[in-house]
């Protein structure tokens, strides 16, 4: 079964907009199509982003709780993250570190000026959501 690290922006997009590629990727995980790898640092970031007032109008607190509960319960948590400093956006280094520590097969991002420009890290391809969905088919 493929092991994926999904950038926070994709997970938040899945929460905000149903029937989109990020939502379908999230649902595929919930249906057992792949293993999702997270780190505690990313979970903390997801919680923080969910609290942004400008985003809260797009989802209910129940939807946010359900996503967080699912992530905590069913995702695999990467530990002992290596120090990574190669991302154009320093906040994305934890995503890269999670992928390495969690032996991911892919990193999924929508960040064209950040993670996607790297193409790969330690032989872990960085792909778009649409590419990830095609890989899972």
Q: How is this structure best described in words?
A:
With 137 residues, the protein is of the alpha/beta class. It has a single domain, classed as 5'-nuclease (Rossmann fold). The protein has a 6-stranded mixed beta sheet, sandwiched between helices. α1 crosses α2 and α2 packs across α8. The longest helix is centred in the middle third of the chain and has 14 residues.
Enumerate how many helices there are, as a single number. 8
Residue share in helix: 40-55%
| CATH architecture term | 3-Layer(aba) Sandwich
User: What is the H/E order?
Assistant: EHHEHHHEHEHEEH
CA-atom Rg in angstroms:
14 Å
Text of the CATH class: Alpha Beta
Q: Supply the CATH superfamily name.
A: 5'-nuclease
Q: Termini, distance in Å?
A: 12 Å
Strand content: 5-15%
User: What is the third-level CATH name, the topology?
Assistant: Rossmann fold
Would you summarize the structure shown here?
50% of the residues lie in helices and 14% in strands.
Explain the layout of strands and helices.
Blueprint lengths: L2 E4 L1 H9 L4 H10 L4 E4 L1 H11 L2 H4 L4 H14 L1 E2 L15 H9 L4 E3 L6 H4 L1 E2 L2 E4 L1 H8 L1
Parallel strand pairs: 1-2, 1-4, 2-3, 4-6
Antiparallel strand pairs: 5-6
Helix pairs in contact: 1-2, 2-8, 3-5
